[in-house]
Amino acid sequence: MASLALIVAAGRGERLGSEGPKALVELGGRSLLRWSVDLMLAVEEIDRIVVALPPGVSAPAGTTGVQGGAARSESVARALQASGPGDPGDLVVVHDAARPLASAELVRAALGALARNSDLDAAITAAPVTDTIKRAEPPAGAARAGGAHPQAGSEADQQARGEADPQAPGVAGVVVETLDRSALWAVQTPQVFRRGILERALDVPGEVLAQATDDAWLVERLGGRVAIVPAGGENLKITTPLDLSLAELLVASA
Ligand code: CTP
Ligand code: MG
């Protein structure tokens, strides 16, 4: 059984606001992309690494590069295609370059969970939710579509904060329910899949790929069995400048 790693690094990093692509932003003297490549090189079980890259960035030594797609899961699909043919039983590790601090132990734990449990289609890493999570709807009169979170700093965000909503000044939403935190997990990467089901899950129209915030959801849509492998909060995702500052502190204190 071969194991393949796909690193998705093709995002623009808009929320980080860096000058170049987020994958080239440095953390502790190494680019985010380099952190993830080094991580996968440290996992003996992995025999091949494919990286989805932003335009103009070349593949690091020891990896195969492919240009990423418009959405994250499209980049995953392109990387999987670029890996060439494989066996449906092969294991595929999908990892975001935006999570440079994932450990080799965590990758091995997810690979091991699939290798040991033949009834599983995927094993995804996740941390228990520690915040209380509530579901809210926009206040009456707000024009924002329900469901989606506003992007910080956007007009929709100002509106959600009540700044442009005369009916509820200073109010972002009204609580509909409080979720049972004990059953909730904040999902991370690495996520490990059996190749056969991942290929089928990714073989969907671009609109569906664009809707996916992780690849496990695409497998869930097919009725796949997805297991959770517990992870810690130190595998943080670099989304905003605050995340990068936190990661710098973690790296400096390690
Ligand atoms: N990604 C990708 N291809 C895309 C979009 C995202 O390969 N079309 C990758 C990113 O490079 C990142 C991971 O998916 O490693 C998670 O995405 P995210 O953290 O959202 O990164 P960006 O899309 O770069 O950031 P932003 O959404 O703020 O622009
Ligand atoms: Mg993104």
Give structural notes.
The protein has helices at 32-41, 72-82, 104-116, 155-160, 195-202, 206-211, 215-221, 241-253, and strands at 3-8, 26-27, 30-31, 48-53, 64-67, 91-96, 122-128, 134-137, 174-178, 185-194, 226-230. The protein contains eight helices and eleven strands. A hairpin with a 2-residue loop joins strand 2 and strand 3 (30-31). It is globular and about 55 Å long. It is of the alpha/beta class and 254 residues long. It binds cytidine-5'-triphosphate and magnesium ion.
Strand order of the largest sheet: 5-4-1-6-10-7-11
Could you say which structural class the secondary elements and strand pairing correspond to? alpha/beta
What percent strand? 15-25%
Q: What's the tally of helices?
A: 8
Could you say which overall geometry the principal axes of the C-alpha atoms support?
A: globular
Oligomer: single chain
Extended strand count: 11
Distance between the ends: 34 Å
